[in-house]
Amino acid sequence: MKLTWHIIKKDLLRLKWVLVLWILLLIAANGMAAIQARLDAENSYPFYLTANVMATAFLPLIAFGLVMGLLHDDSVVEVDAFWITRPISGGDLLIAKAAALVLFAMIPVLSSIPFWLSHDYRWTQLVFATKQMLYGYFAVVLLALPIAVLSATASKFVMHVLIGASALFVLFIVLGLGKTGDGGLPRGELVQTKAWIIAVLWMATAIGSTCFQFTTRRTRRTVIVFGISVALQLAVAKWWPVELKPITVERPGSQRVIRAETEELFARGQSGGLLGLIIAEVPLAAGQCSSRSGTTLYVQHVLLDWTGELQVAFSEAEPLSSAQLLDFFRGARLRDEQRADYYILNRRDGRAFPVKPVKQGNELIVATLGFSHAGFATRPAGQWLDSAPENLPEWLKSAALVKVVPKDQPSPPEMGKGGEGSAPQDSPTLALNE
Amino acid sequence: MNAIETHGLTRRYGKAEALHGLTLSVPAGSIYAFIGPNGAGKTTTIRMLMNLLQPTSGQALVLGVDSRRLTPTDRRRIGYVSENQKLPEWMTVNQLMRYCEPLYPKWDRDLEKSLLRKFELPADRKLKHLSRGMMMKAALLSALAYRPELLVLDEPFSGLDPLVRDEFIAGALEVSHQEKWTIFISSHDINEVEQLASWVGIIEAGQLALSEPTEDLLARFRILEVTLNEGDFAIPSAPETWLEVKREGNLIRAIETRYNAEKLEQYVRYRLKNATVDVKPMTLRQIFVVLAREGRSQARVVSA
User: Fold this and answer.
1) Looking at beta carbons, which residues of chain A come within 8 Å of B54?
2) Where does residue B192 rank: exposed (0-12), middle (13-18), buried (19+ CB within 10 A)?
3) What CA–CA distances, in Å, run from B247 to B233, B260, B261, B291?
4) A317 three-class SS
5) A-contacting residues of B 65-84, CB under 8 Å?
6) When comparing pLDDT for B298 and B73, which is higher?
7) A84–B contact, CB cutoff 8 A
């Protein structure tokens, strides 16, 4: 324990300026998010954008650099590393480095806590936001870990990352990893299955090869194991045929795309044609949506990503908050650059509630642009833990989000099977009355 | 008791064999000079002794422990300084000492201070801002201050100017003599270690050419200049213990590798018909050069 702390202190001293930079950027990003939450739509967007760029680009980059710096000060690849000839075992060093990585994980969390508290987070939300932030941090760490372990110097690490990324890009095109056999996009469930298998393989490889290399320093064997694992992951990406139900089963937070032609029961363009209808099923269970009394749920944007998954972002309006709604719809565009109209569809009775980007005063924003930015949203990404499932309105539990493109078809869709009528077309929001 | 023993130590890099069946003993308390030309296998040997490299076959025992199983406790008894070692150059000299100190229960602050003064090292300067000689002295300081039983120095003088080299040697010797440590020092330049070595091992092309006390080595090697009597040019073949036998007229020059004054006298008296023999002692450097040349010529014969 004493030795572990001794090595950690040395690493803290070594990386002090990077850590200071990291903390300053975290504070700046949180500050930007705090400012944007208090400005109107016109003025807040630059702050939102800056916070988002910091969250999605700079901060993961610094975390990547921290892993690199931490490991290369005591390289486990170099034969002539200083630590090897000192009374430090590979196991001692591994424990110290792992402890340092855990310690570093506290930095973004501790930097964000004042910001979260100033936005009235309750303890459940604090726990969730912390968990989400740690997921993001450790995802970056695990991504960098095996490459950093197997690179003798920082420059080699950067070179290996660039070569790896380029090779992956080329393989992606050559092997057609993003496509199915018929050239189309693969089914979301299959992509999800593959992604999980690849993530688990990478994680196991990262942890296994790191432990092995630290304790044995058999670099050649570690490289071989790492290479086999990467080849296996590519094979999974290309050829894995089976959707694994336990993985793809809908959980709170999951979204599933249903192709329009198979789901006409849900919604239909007013003119009668389906017109590129896409339906995103959004299981709004506990932890997924707000059920606090008096709050209003907004759909912020829906984006189709490269896998065909829909990215759905919500905002929550809190009448008592002093913050104002930011017009996220301004940035919400589809791949074909068409603006869409959105509807929340009650699948039980077929009622559709159109949702429009109407700003209403004194509302608070939640942004969900990915796991890495959680610290900079004013609420954890679209998930609310303080509501029990039984408190949710029954219809909302099975609600679906419907989007109709192109924009020339703005009116609410016809009712799906069993529909009984639609909400008023000019209804801008969906009030969650319990 | 040997501080270091190796048995059939072999290391291959792909198809190339850097070290071939090295069997070596370094007596405890000795200052063992491990000499050989560049590429002979000195650094590979030391790396295996320190468990920086795994042997392909064979075994090395360091302070009685298999080098592959050296524990942190064992490492507290071993000091290592190498020209190749990657020091944490971002640290100041003082930070390096403070980082090392808790790793060694026997760390001696007084010795550290005294060596710091002796080596004239600036405690607050970062290692990366030190000259190469100063950096080597800092490395030596960090290896001496805990009074190791075995000090392994891998080409420590490489690139050092004579003044720094002498300071380095003086620093290492001063402490080691007091404590009766074992010092294992490798070098490609015999001049560097000639003055201090009590044992010498010469390695040539991955194989040990010789290993014995310096005193014995100096005692058994001699330069012979034999002046034959007038007209007596038909001489028998030279003894097997003679190397580099050259004849110029009535003068024969050779290196005697098993010098024994009595036997030589008898040989000259009966086989060379009372020729005159001039016997000169050799320096380690001269012995090293002769053996290196001999090794190469044998290698050429083998390869032919």
Assistant:
1) 218
2) buried
3) 10, 22, 22, 20
4) strand
5) 71-73, 75-76, 78, 80, 82, 84
6) B73
7) yes
Q: How far apart are CA B63 and CA B78, in angstroms?
A: 9
Three-state DSSP state, A31: helix
How are strands ordered across the β-sheet holding A352-355?
A256-259, A278-281, A399-404, A341-346, A352-355
Q: Does A13 contact B at CB distance below 8 Å? A: yes
What letter would DSSP give residue B167?
H
Please state, in angstroms and rounded to a whole number, the distance separating the CA atoms of residues B210 and A391.
Answer: 88
What local confidence, expressed as pLDDT, does residue A346 receive? Answer: 41
The predicted pLDDT at position B222 comes to: 92
pLDDT score at A372:
20
Q: Which of B47, B72, B86 sits opposite A89 (nearest CB)?
A: B72
Mean pLDDT is lowest, of A108-117, A147-156, A240-249, A313-322, for A313-322
pLDDT at B293 over 90: no
The answer to whether the Cα torsion of A386, A390, A395, A399 is positive or negative is positive
Q: Residue B50 pLDDT > 90, yes or no?
A: yes
- Percent of chain A scored above 90 by pLDDT? 24
Check pLDDT > 70 for residue A179: no
C-alpha to C-alpha distance for A297 and A395, rounded to whole angstroms: 14
Per CB-CB distance under 8 Å, the chain B contacts of A69 are none
Nearest C-alpha of chain B: how many angstroms from A376?
A: 34
Nearest Cβ partner for A85 among B50, B71, B88: B50
Q: Which of B184, B210, B179, B215 is nearest to B198 (CA)?
A: B215
Phi, psi of A295 (to 5 degrees): -90, 160
Q: Which residue, A25, A19, A42, A44, is CA-closest to A34?
A: A44
Q: Calculate Rg over the CA atoms of chain A.
A: 24
Which value does ipTM take for this structure? 0.82
Pair A209, A222: CB distance under 8 Å: yes
3-state secondary structure labels for all residues of B176-193: HHHHCCEEEEEECCHHHH
Task: Look up residue B171 and give its two tokens.
Answer: 């620093």
Neighbouring-strand partners of residue A311: A303
Chain A CB contacts of B94 under 8 Å are none
The total number of residues shown for chain B amounts to: 304
Q: Strands B276-281 and B16-27, how do they pair?
A: unpaired
Q: Tell me the pLDDT band of A246, cut-offs 50, 70 and 90.
A: low
| Chain B positions in Cβ-Cβ contact with residue A73 (cut-off 8 Å) | 88
Q: Which letter does DSSP use for residue B126 in this model?
A: B
Interface test with A, best of B63, B86, B104, B155 (most A CBs within 10 A): B86
Query: In 3D, which of B129, B92, B90 has the Cα closest to residue A72?
Result: B90
Alpha helices in B102-246 (DSSP H): 109-119, 132-144, 162-179, 190-193, 214-220
| Count of alpha carbons within 13 angstroms of residue B102, beta-carbon side | 13
Spatial distance between the Cα atoms of A295 and A41, rounded to a whole number of angstroms: 20
B90 interaction partners in chain A (CB closer than 8 Å): 14
Whether the pLDDT of residue A415 is over 90: the answer is no
DSSP reduced 3-state for A261: helix
The burial of B21, by beta-carbon neighbours within 10 Å (0-12 exposed, 13-18 middle, 19 or more buried), is given as middle
Omega of the bond prior to A413 within 30 degrees of 0, cis? no
| pTM of the shown model | 0.71
**Residue B188: Cβ-neighbour burial (10 angstroms; 0-12, 13-18, 19+):** middle
What would the pLDDT profile of A341-389 be if each residue is shown by its tens digit?
444 444 444 444 444 332 222 222 222 222 222 222 222 333 332 333 4
What's the gap in Å between the CA of B167 and the closest CA on chain A? Answer: 23
What tokens does B222 get?
A: 């001699």
Nearest residue on chain B to A7, alpha-carbon basis? B99
Find the radius of gyration of the CA atoms of chain B. Answer: 23
CA distance linking residue A259 with residue A296, whole number of Å: 29
